[in-house]
Structure prediction request, 326 residues.
Amino acid sequence: MTASDEQSGTGAPSLATLVISTEPYLLAQAERETIERLVPPESRDLNLKVLYGWETDLGTVVEFLQTLPFLGDRRVLVLREVHKLPDYKELTSYLKDPNPSSTLFMTSSGMKKSDSGYRTLSALCDASELRRPYGRSLVSWVRARFRSQGKEIEPAFCELLVQISGDNLGLLATEIDKIVLVSGDRGSIAEEDLDVSVPGGVEVIFNFLDALGDGDSSRALASLKTLLESDNPPEYIVHMMAWHYRQLIRGKDLVRSGLSAGEAAVKMGKRFPALKEKFTRHMRRVKDGDLVRALDVLAAGDLMLKRGRIPEVTVLDRMVLELLSG
Prediction:
């Protein structure tokens, strides 16, 4: 009986699991959840071992797994980067006849489903690949993580948080935890709760983007000054400007597909009345040619910032004026 057969059709813990992913955060999360589910904190010193494949050998792994739990119900061995274990394919001998009182949890960031090693191990254990979410899926991932902590949040705020964190899952998770903490007992996340993730407060970046959308150069320059005084990096400001114009491009595409401006705004996640009204107003004001030109202006400005020959404030001021000169 193999490790995967042992718990088939039962509620018993898996005796062996292999999880692969190119995203370190997802592997760490899966490992953490497994440990919390199977090993009580008070018995982890005796019944839990975490090893990297390159620092151990097959004999050490099997010896730990074959030993009965001490003052507990189960032993768990976490074997990170299993593909680095010398002769890791020889684990098959153990997996064909595993100790029912032990769980082997294997992870790998370098193994692919097409690899012979994956095929060999997955035939004898529970195996899965955790794929990193992108685009709209990443926004859904953020919203689901808030919901797992009992909080509702608008998709537009999720998308803003993704932009703030630069698609880094570990950083995103940390920011979510911070926002949940400051939100207190409320069941939904308010705009001001996101201030903890934005230097100077999220209202500052919203005011800046709103001014761009309204074509108000004086207000945009004043908001830009506040952003810089709050120590927001120029690269972040350019990143958020690019996000703003890409949002408008996507919204206009939806309108061309047959939706009304309001329907397009909702489709883009702008469900709060104020957000919906602003986005609709911005879409109606901006011309298609201005959106194409905006991306060119941002690309040129980003290059000037990287070259460092002109003061950052000057570059950003010029970008704003050029963006709103149409």
Notes: The chain has a mean pLDDT of 88. The radius of gyration is 26 Å. Residues 198 and 318 are 24 Å apart (CA to CA). The beta strands are 16-20, 48-52, 75-80, 102-108, 126-129.
